[in-house]
Specification:
Length: 244
């Protein structure tokens, strides 16, 4: 009996992996966007759950919709397509698919923070706005690599949420332009990044003090970002006291 169950599970898994393979073959670029960063075995596992109980004909119907629409739905949406629920979320999926993947969006933001003349999209700017403080904290971090990693991961998570919200509200991708203009150049004073050359360099002593103090504050229960800000503030007060 166990052998029969095991064989049935293997057949189902092969079917799921086959569907995932067809997805990738029909629309490879869309596949990368939809499943960005998700391990293949997790995609196959999710697909296995979502196609459970479907007939071969129903799965073929869903795959035909993937072909006709030219993009990959998530497994839950694919099940709806297989069941013949056409049009449900199709336009939202198409809008969402039109946006860059989160890794490409992050690369754009990093270029923009170093050179404000570079163009970014509306979704990239919105995601950046939501974690602006974390990007700003990189400038004062004792451990720049760690602070950068946290900011970049926060951006990617925010970006995924933003494009989902934009798709639901029928907001299409476009180049972001600031509402504030000075002369002929658009700027956003609140979120305009400072080029690294404008940042006053910290001494090694300052960096070590800030890193040590931020660790103490984290041990007391403060978050990394708040600890960095607090340590930076205390270091500035310490420097003023030394001058006085």
């Amino acid at each position: 009996m166990n052998s029969v169950v095991s064989n049935a599970a293997q057949v189902q898994e092969i079917k799921a992996s086959g569907v995932v393979g067809v997805f990738k073959a029909i629309a490879p670029r869309s596949f990368e966007k939809t499943f960005d960063g998700i391990p293949t075995h997790e995609i196959v596992g999710a697909m296995k759950i979502c196609i459970s109980g479907l007939t071969r004909q129903q799965i073929d119907l869903g795959l035909n919709m993937v072909r006709d629409n030219g993009f990959c739905p998530d497994p839950a949406m694919f099940r709806k397509w297989c069941l013949g629920i056409q049009g449900f979320g199709t336009e939202q999926q198409r809008i969402q698919d039109s946006y860059k993947g989160k890794h490409a969006a992050l690369a754009s933001i990093i270029r923009w923070t170093n050179d404000n003349s570079q163009s970014i999209t509306n979704a990239e700017k919105e995601a950046y706005n939501r974690c602006y403080e974390m990007f700003n904290a990189i400038n004062y971090a004792g451990n720049v690599d760690r602070a950068s990693y946290l900011a970049y991961e926060a951006f990617k998570d925010n970006y995924a949420e933003v494009i989902k919200e934009f798709a639901e509200n029928d907001i299409k991708q476009c180049v972001w332009e600031s509402d504030i203009t000075v002369g002929t150049k658009a700027v956003d004073e609140k979120f305009k990044p400072k080029p690294p050359s404008f940042i006053k360099p910290q001494s090694e002593e300052d960096k070590l003090w800030i890193e040590s103090r931020s660790k103490q504050l984290q041990a007391e229960g403060m978050s990394l970002i708040k600890a960095l800000f607090q340590a930076q503030k205390e270091n500035m007060e310490r420097a003023k006291g030394a001058v006085a």
